[in-house]
Design a protein that fits this description.
The complex is a heterotrimer of chains A (346), B (406) and C (285). Chain A is mostly helical and 346 residues long. Chain A contains 13 helices and two strands; from the N terminus they run ααααααββααααααα. In chain A, strands 1-2 form a two-stranded antiparallel ribbon. In chain A, a hairpin with a 2-residue loop joins strand 1 and strand 2. In chain A, helix 3 (42-67) packs antiparallel against helix 10 (222-248), helix 3 crosses helix 11 (258-271) and helix 5 (98-121) runs antiparallel to helix 10. With 406 residues, chain B is α/β, with parallel strands linked by helices. In chain B, 37% of the residues lie in helices and 18% in strands. Chain B has helices spanning 2-17, 58-77, 97-110, 122-134, 162-166, 169-176, 189-204, 223-231, 246-255, 301-313, 326-343, 348-355, and strands at residues 45-51, 86-92, 115-118, 139-142, 155-157, 180-186, 208-215, 236-238, 264-266, 287-290, 359-360, 368-371, 376-378, 382-387, 390-396. A five-stranded parallel β-sheet of chain B has the order 2-1-3-4-5, with helices on both faces. In chain B, helix 2 (58-77) packs parallel to helix 11 and helix 11 crosses helix 12 (348-355). Chain C is mainly alpha-helical and 285 residues long. In chain C, helix 1 runs antiparallel to helix 8, helix 2 (39-55) runs parallel beside helix 4 and helix 5 packs across helix 6. Chain C is globular. Classes of the chains: A mainly alpha (346), B alpha/beta (406), C mainly alpha (285). The A-B interface holds A 41-43, 46, 145, 148-149, 151, 154-158, 160-162, 173-174, 248-250, 252, 254-255, 295, 298-300 and B 6, 9-10, 13-14, 96-98, 101, 105-106, 109-110, 122-123, 126-127, 129-131, 134-135, 186-189, 192, 214, 216-217.
Chain lengths: 346, 406, 285
């Protein structure tokens, strides 16, 4: 994963002496992730798989928030709809082949994101961040209530007993097999995202983050850019949703709702937005810490988690990854340091 | 050992902080494996309980956990099962299916229990049965009254079914309430399926269903429903709204004058635990049909003994009651014990085969028998009415009632 | 006719409840631009304090009277310690208050053991009008809400203190230049918003019973109400709350509750999209 392009843009004499930390972090994470199942017992590998899928979900949010500045409080809408969609495919049409369900999940996520994004983001006046945040939050909440009330979708029960995903006649069950599948998908999506944000499109996005009006004057249609990123984010969330549904074996209304949506925002904020790896790190740390806390401090662990989150938000608003990565290395910064006012708002 | 310790500290914490908790944590020696045992080399038999220790149904889940601890202790004190001690693992399903699945996985994959008993609401059962029975290949006993139609192999139900709860109850309601029924319900699988059965019985006995409606589980404002009930002059409200909505619903119904005008409330999961949700005058005359009521202890010595043992070990707010799956838990564990004794080993197929026709002579409310091939349980049923905050038995079944399932 | 009266009463009482909750949320949002995700938990605290008073043997209304003051005091402390740091970044504020809300909610959950507890109302029973019965307590809630609203309005428009608050609302820089300590204004406003939430929780708890997730239930409705009504003024959120509350209570009378639930939100979002400034735009009262 070589750092391409950055060296040319940096002013001469600056930063070339500084070691590039990001690729090291990424490669280390990859090595740890690949080796994990050999070290852990089966039960923990299953847990790790779930974390990997949630990391993929977190990645979708980092795309829209870290790179396009869209505060989407409703990513779970795409995650959950894809989950429900593939669950219905499995229940009603008996389709469990990975070749069908994962693309289906992506398509569902993409469609809903286009619809919601189109409504919220496009229009005569650019939408405020707060409006988009509340609009997506409401979308997620409304989807949750709809699923809860619709008996065909199982209502409060959700859809239980989803059979295993299959590849031909081979059943992909939870454990190392599913883990490597999820990890592989995360790896590919991560690379694609990295490629996207370093491309010309990503350059336009960087301009969008810096100054939306100026980018518009240059002829870029900023609203369309945002809608595209939102749609891609929705697609990735949908992919994660499909994987999650088959791994857990059931889908239920909470997958669509506000708690899941907010959780993914927290993952990214905690890890560090705008860095892609930050999303993964955030998901891993929060889920891991929750797991460990819930085992050892059964009664007060949510309180401890809340305190931890609050401390990070207060004192390290750029996320934990900022301990390791400098501001410059946020993928897509394209060299120059960001404006000072952006330091307060990650 | 570790698990006992963890569960212990939770009890101590809760009893320390929770104002209403009068229960003191049970002593250290109550359900810890005793190392100086015959056959201890083979290790303990592991029993897993997955129940709602927190959440709206926590009043029931905690009672079930207490019953499990009590029964396991009794069995251990009596020499264990197959000469081996029993070790209990309790996990919280928290009325949250996602959390539940994660915790149930702990029981199956990490603790490797030999049997799981638990789940209260049907949505919980549906969520956890797959990890237990299919992926986990473990025996699962479901102890709560429910809507029927659960015929999954290796899943045994020890709570009442619609046939047991409605066949005699609804004719009694028509005679002692009236012909016009309303079916306000929570929107999930149990009320939907139960209402189908109840409607059949109501109409077969000359009654009429005026309306049937479904509400989200967290709905707390029922003014529209109450209005519909009053204006349609409904005689019997056959309620399947569950906590948290049921308290406000009954209160609003009372305030609108339903009981004053001679209406009858009916709720088949209402037991001694739920009596505390409303004030006594708000539920005066409420009728329920269950396999056990505390007032039975006056004439049934077996029930009296079980109730006394529970009350001694677990005084406090989590009562031994039938609508809370506590009696089903007791029954389920004792039937399983009998099955394991007959099978002589812990292998799932052997125990399942023995459990298929297991019987116990002594249970709360009366003896119980599994119906061979059906994985459901015959038991005695009682109809009771709430008067001044207590139940009065107004009807008893002739012998054991058939569950008529599968 | 009687039907319509009862329906109207029920809708009004539910609307009143929403107004109480949203009042605090709206004041904080208008004044400081922060959507306080912990507002629901202030409601929960108000309910919890009432429960504590009741289970401690005190009359329920004592708990209800104490709740707003105690929660307001807590709000004041939290503002000074934590919320203050978020003024520059409203988005971070939402998440920070979410974390705060999480801490409060889980603490209460641990304290009540995850159970659903009931608290009796101080004024129970029903009022008989003709042949109709209406809940006495809900009637009291409507009355109290009206009094609170009138009180707030008078406070804001007629008193010196209200003048200073309005000044800070309309133009913080100018207010500061005029010698008004905006920092203490913010602190007082946040405390006031919290106190209102505490009062709402205290009044609500006999109706809805006490459980740890009580606050989340109203949070989304609250935010939507504030957006619909218009951020920046006092009457804006109130108007929004009245609209949302009335719709939420009225629609289930004419359609399935599930559809009504969702329709309110869909309508609200569509409305905001086409009128981003809300019903009542403009700052001040």
């Amino acid at each position: 994963m070589a750092e391409s392009g950055l060296a040319g843009i940096l002013p001469a004499g600056q930063a070339t002496a500084r070691r590039k930390v990001l690729p090291i972090v990424e490669i280390l994470s990859l090595i740890v992730a690949v080796v994990l199942p050999f070290v852990l017992q089966d039960y923990l590998t299953v847990f790790a798989t779930r974390v990997v899928i949630l990391a993929l979900f977190a990645l979708s949010f980092d795309l829209v928030w870290g790179y396009a500045g869209i505060m989407s409080f409703g990513q779970a809408l795409f995650f959950g709809s894809a989950g429900y969609g593939v669950a219905l495919l499995a229940r009603d049409l008996n389709i469990t082949s990975i070749l069908v369900v994962l693309p289906a999940g992506m398509l569902i996520g993409l469609t809903f994101a286009l619809l919601l994004g189109g409504f919220l983001l496009l229009g005569r006046h650019p939408s405020t961040v707060i409006f988009v945040a509340l609009g997506t939050l409401t979308g997620s909440y409304a989807a949750d209530r709809l699923a809860r009330g619709w008996y065909y979708l199982g209502g409060q029960n959700g859809i239980p007993s989803i059979p295993s995903m299959t590849l031909g006649s081979y059943e992909i069950t939870e454990g190392p097999a599913y883990y490597y599948l999820a990890l592989g998908i995360l790896f590919v999506v991560y690379l694609l995202c990295r490629f996207l944000v370093r491309s010309q499109f990503g350059l336009a996005l960087a301009g969008l983050r810096e100054n939306e009006q100026r980018i518009a004057f240059f002829g870029y249609r900023s609203q369309h850019l945002k809608a595209i990123v939102f749609a891609v984010g929705g697609m990735v969330a949908g992919l994660a949703g499909g994987l999650y549904a088959f791994h857990e074996g059931f889908v239920w209304p909470n997958m669509l709702g506000v708690v899941f949506s907010t959780q993914v925002v927290l993952y990214v904020l905690f890890g560090g937005s705008g860095t892609l790896i930050g999303a993964v790190v955030g998901a891993v740390i929060i889920e891991g810490v929750s797991f460990w806390l819930s085992d050892n401090y059964r009664d007060i662990w949510p309180i401890l988690l809340g305190v931890l989150l609050l401390l990070v938000i207060l004192f390290r608003p750029l996320g934990l990854i900022s301990f390791v990565l400098g501001e410059r290395e946020r993928v897509g910064s394209f060299g120059g340091p960001p404006k000072g006012s952006r330091d307060a708002a990650p | 050992m570790f698990n006992d310790f963890r569960n212990l500290s939770r009890r101590r914490f809760l009893s320390g902080l929770a104002f209403t908790s009068g229960a003191v944590a049970t002593g250290v020696g109550s359900w810890v494996v005793r190392p100086d045992w015959a056959n201890a080399a083979e290790g303990p038999i592991k029993v897993g309980i997955a129940t709602d220790l927190t959440g709206p149904i926590a009043y029931a889940g905690n009672a079930d956990a207490n019953v499990a601890k009590m029964v396991i202790k009794q069995i251990n004190d009596g020499g264990g099962l197959l000469g081996r001690p029993l070790e209990l693992f309790i996990e919280d399903t928290a009325s949250n299916e996602s959390v539940a699945v994660g915790n149930v996985r702990k029981l199956i994959q990490r603790d490797k229990v030999d049997m799981v008993l638990g789940g209260i609401t049907s949505s919980m059962r549906n969520a956890i049965k797959d990890p237990i029975v299919a992926r986990g290949k473990t025996l699962y006993i479901y102890p709560q009254l429910y809507e029927g139609k659960e015929c999954t192999p290796y899943l045994f139900c020890t709570g009442p079914t619609p046939a047991q709860q409605c066949d005699d109850f609804i004719p009694w309601l028509i005679k002692n309430g009236g012909k016009k029924f309303a079916l306000p319900s929570a929107n999930y699988v149990w009320p939907h399926t139960l209402n189908v059965y109840a409607r059949k019985v109501i109409e077969a006995n000359g009654g009429e269903v005026v309306f049937e409606e479904y509400y989200p589980l967290d709905q707390v404002d029922f003014s529209a429903t109450v209005n519909r009930i009053i204006s349609n002059k409904v005689d019997v409200v056959f309620n399947t709204v569950i906590p948290p909505g049921v308290g406000p619903f009954f209160k609003q119904l009372y305030e609108a004058g339903f009981l004053k005008n001679g209406g009858r409330l009916a709720c088949v999961y209402y037991d001694e635990n739920t009596l505390n949700i409303n004030q006594a005058n708000e539920i005066e005359g409420l009728a329920s049909c269950l396999d056990y009521f505390k007032t039975l202890t006056k004439d049934d010595p077996v029930s009296a003994k079980i109730q006394a043992a529970y009350d001694k070990d677990y005084p406090g707010n989590f009562l031994f009651a039938a609508g809370s799956a506590a009696t089903g838990t007791y029954r389920g564990l004792k039937l399983w014990e009998a099955a394991v004794k007959e099978a002589g080993k812990l292998d799932r197929d052997a125990v399942a085969a023995a459990l298929d026709h297991a019987k116990i002579a002594e249970g709360p409310g009366g003896p119980a028998e599994m119906v061979p091939g059906k994985r459901h349980c015959k038991m005695k049923m009682y109809t009771a009415v709430a008067k001044g905050g207590n139940y009065e038995i107004v009807g008893r079944s002739d012998g054991l009632v058939d569950p008529k399932e599968c | 006719m009687g039907n319509a009266f009862v329906a109207g009463f029920e809708i009004l009482s539910f609307g009143a409840i929403i107004v109480l909750i949203v009042l605090g949320l709206g004041i904080i949002a208008s004044m400081m631009g922060i959507f306080n995700f912990a507002q629901g938990e202030f409601v929960l605290l108000g309910a919890y304090i009432t429960y504590l008073a009741h289970s401690g043997g005190l009359p329920v209304w004592v708990g209800m009277a104490a709740a707003p003051f105690l929660v307001g005091a807590l709000g004041f402390v939290l503002e000074a310690l934590i919320i203050r740091r978020f003024y520059a970044a409203p988005i971070v504020a939402m998440l920070g208050t979410y974390a705060l809300g999480l801490i409060i909610r889980e603490s209460v959950r641990g304290l009540i053991g995850g159970l659903y507890l009931s608290v009796p109302e101080p004024v129970g029973g029903s009022i008989d009008i003709g042949g109709l019965h209406i809940s006495a307590w809900r009637f009291v809630i409507i009355v109290i809400t009206l009094l609170v609203m009138i009180g707030c309005y008078l406070l804001l428009s007629r008193t010196n203190f209200g003048l200073r608050i309005r000044a800070t609302l309309e133009n913080p820089a100018l207010a500061r230049a005029s010698g008004i300590s905006t920092a203490s204004m913010y602190g007082t406003t946040f405390a006031f918003g919290a106190a209102l939430a505490g009062l709402a929780g205290a009044l609500l708890v006999p109706v809805f019973s006490l459980f740890a997730d009580l606050g989340i239930r109203f949070l989304i409705q609250g935010f939507v109400a504030v957006m619909v009504g218009g951020v920046g003024s006092f009457m804006g959120p109130v108007a929004g709350a009245a609209v949302i509350g009335t719709l939420s209570a009225a629609l289930p009378w004419v359609m399935a509750p599930v559809v009504a639930d969702i329709l309110v939100f869909v309508l609200a979002i569509v409305f905001i999209k086409f009128r981003p400034q809300g019903l009542l735009s403009g700052k001040g009262v």
